């Protein structure tokens, strides 16, 4: 299932360039409103694949702004005490008013009914006003979106497809992009692992075939997100992945996994959410 959440603000404000961890925190906050134990379990453990790989089995898109925004950059970034003081911030500046609220949206997908039930229940328990980052916004609309399960032409919705190849000790892990050796192998391996967790059986079908198309505009997205450990320390993760649209063919079961769990790695951090792409 895919859910679209539209937020609005009657005041001007700013959204951090690296907003993905704020959306992630919002999602876990909704889950916690409904079932704190489930939210904590999913955040700290999740679904385990063969004892060492962990998956959350949900994915969210980047933000879609419904009106023009302005990118604000400064050398002395700080979290504001007063949102009227916007000149020293880094992020997307938007203008809203009581007469003309500013609206923006993001989408969430998951094949796990328990996750979806607690998410929706938590949203309604939360109330209309929520905190995103360091400002208050209102939930103006919640929609259940149709699954594009018959579509094979897809594109990441401001949510890069991220693949990182582990390297031997002493070497840095390698970012992979379309066309790199092993890229499709890693994509398929990731999807089959999610399949095995969901259905408790091995996937015996053929691999998916991907054809990536030249992108109009930017073809790559990068951002930084942090994970907070049980000891309170933050681990910063640098994300760099492709935004290229692609055509995928092969077993529908794996395509469905990609649509509902995300393509590639780090889906619960805002990577690999795709939607239907109209080929020109």
DSSP E strands, number: 19
Shape: globular
Helix and strand sequence: EEHHEEEEEEEHEEEEEHEEEEHE
Strand content: 25-35%
State the separation between the terminal residues, measured CA to CA: 27 Å
- CATH arch. level architecture of the largest domain: 2-Layer Sandwich
**Treating each run of at least 4 consecutive H or I residues as one helix, how many helices?**
5
Number of domains: 2
What is the CATH topology classification name of the largest domain?
Alpha-Beta Plaits
The quaternary organization reads as single chain
Low-confidence segments, given as residue ranges, are 76-84
Mean pLDDT: 87
Protein name: CRISPR repeat RNA endoribonuclease Cas6
Pfam family, one: Cas6_I-A
Domain CRISPR associated protein Cas6 C-terminal: 159-275
GO molecular function, one term: hydrolase activity, acting on ester bonds
How would you describe the overall organization of this protein?
The protein has about 280 residues and is α+β, with helices and mostly antiparallel strands. The chain has 2 domains: about 1-145, Alpha-Beta Plaits (2-Layer Sandwich), CATH 3.30.70.1890; about 155-275, Alpha-Beta Plaits, CATH 3.30.70. Helix content is about 25%, strand content about 30%. It is built from 5 helices and 19 strands. The protein has helices at about 20-35, 35-45, 115-125, 185-200, 250-260; strands at about 1-10, 15, 45-50, 55, 60, 65, 70, 90-95, 100-110, 130, 135-145, 155, 165, 175, 210, 220-230, 235-240, 245-250, 275. The strands form 6 sheets. Strands 1, 5, 6, 9, 10 and 11 form a 6-stranded antiparallel beta sheet that branches. Strand 13 (about 165) and strand 14 form a beta hairpin. Helix 1 (about 20-35) runs antiparallel to helix 2 and helix 4 packs across helix 5. It is globular, with a radius of gyration of 19 Å. The relative contact order is 0.21. Pfam families: Cas6_I-A, Cas_Cas6_C. Belongs to the CRISPR-associated protein Cas6/Cse3/CasE family. This is CRISPR repeat RNA endoribonuclease Cas6. It comes from Candidatus Jettenia ecosi. One of its GO terms (molecular function) is RNA binding.
